[in-house]
């Protein structure tokens, strides 16, 4: 079970990597758009410098045809590094790209997955990771937890080495359901990650502990006794 940050914001990546057990970073064109017209490859290299070489960095292609996506992948390898996971949408052209990149030994994440049919195709194409869109599936009336559970079952049954990297979350409860369904990892936007710790009952409990201790020892901490 691993948590990745679904963001290209440098400050958030630095802060969350310091506080939380973050396993890597994912991005896509829509996420990059939130940062404005940044110098893209320099920005990605800075993310790499924050998370280091051992944690995965996922960068998505922007072209929509096979040749263009392959050129995008080569550009990422050249300007960032060859350890990057290339995110490829699972459409007709994308499956061909996944096969080709895997033949080259590249790391590949199959993204924009809305159902088991796409996931099964990506498994056979050799994707390292499959990113089912949890909230987007739920918005379409799809039982996202069931989809992830069935994908996990197929992976276990046939012995695929692919990991489920669940994505598209709007609330912490969705993350819980994805993990319980069998997701190996989740990629989560910073605001949703912070939302895990925003429960009022937790804040109330911490305050109660603080008040009780202060009543005993006049506000001194353990280290000050």
What does this structure look like?
Keywords: Schiff base, Transferase. One of its GO terms (biological process) is carbohydrate metabolic process. The longest helix is centred in the C-terminal third of the chain and has 18 residues, at 200-217. This protein has 225 residues and is an alpha/beta fold. The protein starts with a strand and ends in an 8-residue tail after the last helix. It has helices at residues 10-19, 29-33, 40-51, 66-79, 92-103, 116-125, 134-139, 144-158, 172-181, 190-195, 200-217; strands spanning 2-6, 22-26, 57-60, 85-89, 107-113, 129-132, 163-166, 185-188. The chain has one domain (2-198): TIM Barrel (Alpha-Beta Barrel). The mean pLDDT is 96.
Descriptive tags:
225 residues; alpha/beta; TIM Barrel; 52% helix; aldehyde-lyase activity
Q: Can I get a quick summary?
A:
The chain has 225 residues and is of the alpha/beta class. It has helices at residues 10-19, 29-33, 40-51, 66-79, 92-103, 116-125, 134-139, 144-158, 172-181, 190-195, 200-217; strands spanning 2-6, 22-26, 57-60, 85-89, 107-113, 129-132, 163-166, 185-188. Strands 1-2-3-4-5-6-7-8 form an eight-stranded parallel barrel, surrounded by seven helices.
Give me the number of helical elements: 11
**Helical residue percent?**
40-55%
Instruction: Write down how many β-strands occur, each being a DSSP E stretch of 2 or more residues.
Output: 8
CATH topology: TIM Barrel
Judging by the overall fold, what is the CATH architecture? Alpha-Beta Barrel
State the shape: globular
CATH superfamily: Aldolase class I
**Order of the strands making up the biggest sheet:** 1-2-3-4-5-6-7-8
The major sheet is characterized as: 8 strands, parallel, barrel
CATH class division:
Alpha Beta
What's the end-to-end separation, in Å? 39 Å
- Taking pLDDT < 50 over at least 5 consecutive residues as the criterion, the unreliable ranges are none
* H/E element sequence: EHEHHEHEHEHEHHEHEHH
Mean pLDDT: 96
Estimated share of beta-strand residues? 15-25%
The gyration radius over C-alpha positions equals 20 Å
């Amino acid at each position: 079970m691993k948590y990745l940050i679904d963001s290209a914001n440098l400050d958030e990546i630095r802060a969350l990597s310091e506080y939380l057990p973050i396993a890597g970073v994912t991005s896509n064109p829509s996420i990059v758009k939130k940062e404005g017209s940044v110098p893209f490859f320099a920005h990605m290299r800075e993310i790499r410098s924050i998370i280091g070489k051992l944690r995965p960095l996922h960068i998505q292609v922007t072209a929509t045809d096979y040749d263009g996506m392959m050129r995008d992948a080569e550009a990422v390898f050249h300007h960032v590094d060859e350890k990057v996971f290339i995110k490829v949408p699972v459409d007709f052209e994308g499956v061909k790209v996944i096969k080709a990149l895997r033949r080259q030994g590249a790391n590949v994440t199959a993204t924009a997955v809305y159902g088991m049919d796409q996931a099964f195709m990506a498994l056979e194409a050799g994707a390292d990771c499959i990113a089912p869109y949890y909230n987007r599936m739920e918005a379409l009336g799809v039982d996202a937890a069931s989809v992830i559970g069935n994908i996990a079952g197929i992976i276990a049954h046939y012995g695929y080495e692919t990991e489920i990297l669940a994505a598209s979350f709007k609330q912490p409860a969705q993350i819980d359901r994805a993990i319980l369904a069998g997701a190996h990892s989740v990629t989560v936007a910073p605001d949703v990650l912070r939302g895990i710790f925003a429960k009022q009952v937790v804040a109330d409990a911490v305050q109660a502990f603080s008040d009780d201790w202060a009543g005993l020892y006049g506000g001194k901490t353990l280290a000050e006794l």
